[in-house]
Amino acid sequence: MDVFCSRLPEQISQAELQRLFTGPLNDCGVQDFHIEKFYNKGNAIITILDANAGQIFLNRYGVPRGSPHNQMALMRISYASKFVRLERSNRDPTDLSLQSLQYMANERAKALLVGVATQRSRPNDRQATEFRVSMLQCGSFDYPRDARLRSDAKLLFLAHFTDPRQGTIHFGQKQAIAILGPEGGDQLRLDLPYNDCIDIVLGKRSSSVQCMTLLEQMQLRQSCQR
């Protein structure tokens, strides 16, 4: 299901959109969704995997499609003292966007099942919390510029920063800490608080990629040894 959002400030960021809608969506049972803001426009599209939960969200916060501009929803979401208008989009989500959301949902479910099975089979063993890192890349996910003209457009990861140094990442109770570089030499430390993460996706053994989507810019700390 696609939900069309209007009356948003043109300058609203992706992180602000995520914070604005995550709570109301979760309250309606929506766990797997993606928000795409229109460039230089006060509009956005929320793609929801579970159509039933999406309909609950629309029943609570949305208005019927094509209804008068002054019609109010049962409950309203506001930003910068303005109420956001939500209605079902006149277009269905693409197969690619639904497949992407389904993949993330499956990976999260697998990780949960594996964690429960491991805990039951080895209740006295401590789970591994530190892993080796072979490279760091920071960037964003986006579609090609001609995506709207292509039916097979794929979501791409665009790397804006790459550090080829090896190191470790440690998953603590409140945050993950990655340290790149040789011990005793110049090192780069990254603090990744879980509260700043939209989601964390862990790859399989054959493709051990860890992807952390953040609301805020992460902290980088460079330590130099003389």
UniProtKB/TrEMBL annotation:
InterPro entries: PH_RdRP. It comes from the Eukaryota. Residues 130-208 form the RdRP-like PH domain. Pfam families: PH_fung_RdRP. This is RdRP-like PH domain-containing protein. It comes from Pseudocercospora fuligena. The lineage of its organism: Eukaryota, Fungi, Dikarya, Ascomycota, Pezizomycotina.
